[in-house]
Write a structure and sequence with these properties.
The chain is α/β, with parallel strands linked by helices and 298 residues long. Helices cover 39% and strands 8% of the residues. The chain has a five-stranded parallel sheet, sandwiched between helices. The radius of gyration is 33 Å and the shape is elongated. The relative contact order is 0.11.
């Protein structure tokens, strides 16, 4: 009987398990036609496609994550007091949300530049910061019974300069803050010893008393220029917010102090933490990355 050998016979078309012949190769490339995605192959293809999309998304997100920096807010209770900042927290928390940077709050109640020098390694340099925001002076200038300051101005200048130089030597950038104008608080929480020696009768308008802090702010401004740090002039921001002078009435009008029940004329309330945040953002706008050149709030 004629015909091809049995091994070359094509199975009948009606045979359900008949193997299908492989696709013919392309006449130029030799590639064979792809089998359509079905079942497992379709799912594998979808997984590969999703992986491709995620890799493209990562290319866009990588620069954003790389731009985030570590900042340390180094100061006293005006930096530390989260509770007085209201639901939004103290100014370091607000700055972190506004800039996208990690801002570590290293404020300590009652601290001075003397105490800051002892804890700078643990509370600042150990975090390997890109920038350090420094606010000291209120406790340094506090008046003792004999009329002297806790940390006299010249010692304050030496302490602060040493802190700035040590931070700059680590490679971090520095932003100095001047201090807010102080006013006489109400009730048992008032802190007149921040304004004048104990026993001194204070006048209704405390502008002359707030001037005791001006020497320290002048030192801070001078060191900022000499050591080429950025500067957030908080004194200037409060005065402009309140109406142009550092007298009690204008400082109170700035709305920076705690609610009246806890008003002491020193610590900031929610409005004060908001104002500090605005002053910081005026010097370090979100999304500007590593600024070059010295900057201060206009």
């Amino acid at each position: 009987m004629g015909g091809p050998p049995p091994t070359q016979w094509a199975p009948a078309a009606w045979w359900p398990d008949a193997p299908k012949p492989p696709p013919a190769p392309h006449p130029f490339t030799g590639a064979r036609r792809r089998v359509p995605f079905t079942g497992v192959r379709r799912r594998v293809g979808i997984i590969h496609f999703m992986g491709f999309l995620l890799s493209i998304l990562a290319l866009f997100l990588l620069p954003l994550s790389a731009a985030a920096e570590t900042w340390v807010a180094f100061g006293d209770s005006i930096t530390r007091r989260v509770a007085f900042g209201g639901p939004e927290g103290a100014w370091p928390d607000r700055v972190a949300r506004a800039t996208g940077h990690r801002v570590i709050n290293s404020g300590v109640d009652g601290d001075t530049t003397l105490g800051a020098g002892f804890r700078i390694q643990r509370d600042v340099l150990a975090h390997h910061p890109d920038r350090v925001l420094i606010m000291f002076g209120v406790n340094d200038h506090r008046v003792l019974p004999d009329g002297r300051e806790v940390v006299p101005p010249m010692r304050f200048a030496r302490n602060l300069a040493a802190i700035v130089k040590q931070i700059q030597a680590s490679g971090a950038r520095v932003t100095l803050f001047t201090n807010r104008p102080l006013v006489l608080g109400d009730g048992p929480l008032a802190r007149p010893y921040y304004l004048a020696p104990p026993g001194r009768k204070l006048t209704p308008d405390q502008a002359a008393c707030t001037k005791t802090l001006c020497r320290y702010n002048a030192i801070i401004r001078g060191l900022s220029r000499t050591l080429e740090t950025d500067l957030v002039d908080l004194w200037k921001a409060v005065v402009e917010k309140g109406g142009g002078t550092d007298g009690d009435a204008h400082v109170r009008a700035a709305g920076i102090d705690k609610p009246s029940k806890y008003f002491d004329g020193v610590h900031l309330g929610p409005g004060g933490h908001r104002l500090v945040t605005e002053a910081v953002l005026a010097v370090h706008p979100p999304g500007h990355g590593k600024e070059t050149g010295r900057r201060e709030n206009p």
